[in-house]
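Need a sequence for this fold. Nothing fancy.
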């Protein structure tokens, strides 16, 4: 089963584009640094994400690799970021699932939530991740229109993500 969990509120996210390569017929690479925005029901919340992927495993017999990393969420008006631990899966076609848990240094890590996770895709050029929030409580249907857009920071061939304010 490919589920750990996510934070039910809005969740943070993260992941893929250019550094360690995932072996297989088609080579998918995973960038180590990402940034982007989360949008809920068509309104971009003023949340800026910095995501760092720390490790990617070799693919299993089904072609899926595990990854884990950390993210910082800078919400407009907050002087202190929220820290989130990330885990997930990516396959050789660039499909991915992402799970998160809050990891506040003042509070300590929390257990992975079971209310949902992100399902998304890495673009063919490895520059962007688009993902949608999925509920596990009410089945595998999207809850609202929660969308995440992340841009790889590392690869020099990636165009910049427009800054929204």
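Here you go.
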């Amino acid at each position: 089963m490919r589920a750990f969990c996510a934070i039910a509120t809005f969740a943070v996210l993260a992941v893929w584009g250019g550094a360690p390569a995932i072996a297989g017929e088609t080579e998918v690479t995973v960038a180590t640094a990402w940034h982007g925005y989360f949008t809920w029901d068509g309104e971009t919340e003023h949340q800026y994400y910095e995501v760092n992927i720390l490790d990617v495993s070799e693919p299993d017999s089904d072609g899926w690799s595990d990854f884990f990393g950390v993210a910082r969420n800078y919400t407009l008006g907050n002087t202190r970021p929220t820290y989130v631990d990330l885990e997930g899966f990516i396959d050789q076609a660039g499909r991915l699932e992402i799970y998160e848990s809050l990891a506040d240094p003042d509070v300590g890590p929390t257990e992975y939530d079971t209310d949902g996770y992100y399902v998304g895709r890495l673009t063919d050029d490895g520059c962007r991740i688009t993902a949608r929030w999925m509920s596990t409580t009410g089945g595998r249907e999207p809850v609202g229109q929660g969308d995440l857009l992340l841009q790889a920071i590392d690869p020099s061939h990636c165009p910049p993500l427009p800054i929204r304010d």
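For context: DSSP finds no helices and eleven strands in the chain.
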